[in-house]
């Protein structure tokens, strides 16, 4: 069985921000977590409209900061900035499938199509910092190009210390069932990612050579799931968790931004519960933090 420091919280754009990581950390003090992806252009340019460019990770425990981009020099500089901000390791995104990243920016999953350029980026980042470097990638661009093993070999040659492998191709996006190939012959440790949501999903991973597991969408509405996989326990009062998460979001973003941003989290927390559809409709019409708190308390029977 994997232990708590082998089960990672995956980077998810628009989800694993600092407030979300804070609530996850309350349940999983030892779990490695990865930030949502950060643009090297935005970070190096210190774009003020992106709060995560200014996060300090010193108090976040085992936290890796994920960067994406195609410019070798900017990726190296971004890694140095994040190291100085307290990140414990740097993760290079080589798997994001969305068009604005993978095709228009030639970053993310596009680097699976150009191993030479990917190698230049990895070498530059490794040489720029004194902390470990990892990559997160996919099986390949499509079913005709499942060359993940070649990319991991390149990563090892560049000094990358471990890789996370999402069990889908770029063409699949997040559709279909994730496939986890045997990685026992890989030269660096590999972390499995994709459709892992319970202890049962972990059973075969170690036999296939995986050094750990990375949970992504399973965290949505269940920030306690990393710990739950280890000890099988749910929080006693989910409503309290939701309210704390909302407070963290307001503290970080301010009420005007936090309330509409939090609606998706409220919906995920309520999924599968009685009257959740009505709750989501109600929440989506709320723009005031106090009214949102009332709705949460009423839904979870705290009033």
Output the keywords.
nine-stranded parallel beta sheet; 11 helices; 9 strands; 303 residues; Non-ribosomal Peptide Synthetase Peptidyl Carrier Protein, Chain A; TIM Barrel; 38% helix; 2 domains; alpha/beta
Second CATH tier, the architecture of the largest domain: Alpha-Beta Barrel
Summarize the biggest pleated sheet: 9 strands, parallel
H and E order:
EHEEHEHEHHEHEEEHHHHH
**First-last Cα distance:** 41 Å
- Model regions low in confidence, pLDDT < 50 over at least 5 residues: none
Global structural class: alpha/beta
Total domain modules = 2
Task: Look at the structure and give the CATH class of the largest domain.
Answer: Alpha Beta
Counted by DSSP, the helix tally is 11
Q: How confident overall, as mean pLDDT?
A: 93
